[in-house]
């Protein structure tokens, strides 16, 4: 297949997983884009030259990208045979100018993509910090019931045991969320762990009739 620039950009931006990552090299037939599966699509969109020939519109793998025989380039070479030295020099100068302009545009796009990626990273970091802080609040909330033995005993052994079990889970998850804040292991948020914290807190409120008060004097908001 051949793609115009607008078409390959649309493929990357709007059909990244469903189509782009499944493209095969037009030269050798091997997977051409699978290597970008762990890269964000908006970053890949700024790397067109790495996998797309702007002369013929083909998608190519790393091995073939700069080695494939592009018939449009061959046609251009044939036309160049009939040019005078002056015409050829002018054409080369224009091509060099266009190349430099394209390179500057590519660098600007790469800088913009890097800046966008950094903004996304900082947003995720802030969200991880919020989740870790709230999880720690839930852990501390449950810890007080494990220490207040008289009040906990008065609630009965079933409630006591359930609160203790929830505290153990909350402590483990709070540590996990904090570690994800300090040293992320994935670009995604730990949604499953966070949902578990919310479930634990909701159940603890049902059992105790109490809730966490924040430093601002408001009930803890578990929405994220």
UniProtKB/TrEMBL annotation:
Keyword Coiled coil: yes
Coiled coil feature spans: 85-120
Record keywords, A-Z: Coiled coil
Top-rank taxon, per record: Eukaryota
Stated name of the protein: Uncharacterized protein
């Amino acid at each position: 297949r051949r793609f115009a620039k607008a078409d390959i950009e649309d493929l990357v931006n709007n059909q990244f997983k469903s189509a782009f990552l499944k493209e095969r090299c037009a030269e050798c037939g091997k997977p051409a884009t699978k290597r970008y599966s762990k890269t964000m699509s908006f970053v890949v969109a700024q790397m067109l030259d790495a996998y797309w020939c702007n002369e013929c519109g083909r998608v190519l793998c790393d091995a073939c990208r700069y080695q494939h025989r592009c018939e449009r380039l061959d046609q251009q070479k044939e036309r160049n045979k009939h040019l005078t030295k002056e015409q050829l020099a002018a054409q080369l100068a224009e091509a060099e100018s266009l190349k430099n302009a394209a390179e500057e545009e590519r660098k600007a796009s790469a800088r913009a993509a890097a800046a966008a990626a950094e903004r996304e990273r900082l947003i995720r970091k802030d969200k991880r910090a919020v989740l870790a802080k709230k999880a720690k609040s839930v852990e501390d909330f449950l810890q007080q019931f494990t220490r207040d033995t008289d009040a906990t005993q008065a609630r009965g052994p079933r409630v006591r045991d359930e609160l203790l079990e929830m505290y153990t889970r909350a402590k483990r998850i709070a540590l996990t969320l904090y570690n994800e804040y300090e040293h992320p292991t994935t670009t995604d948020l730990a949604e499953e762990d966070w949902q578990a914290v919310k479930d634990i807190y909701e159940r603890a409120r049902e059992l105790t009739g109490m809730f966490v008060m924040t430093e601002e004097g408001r009930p803890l908001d578990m929405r994220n």
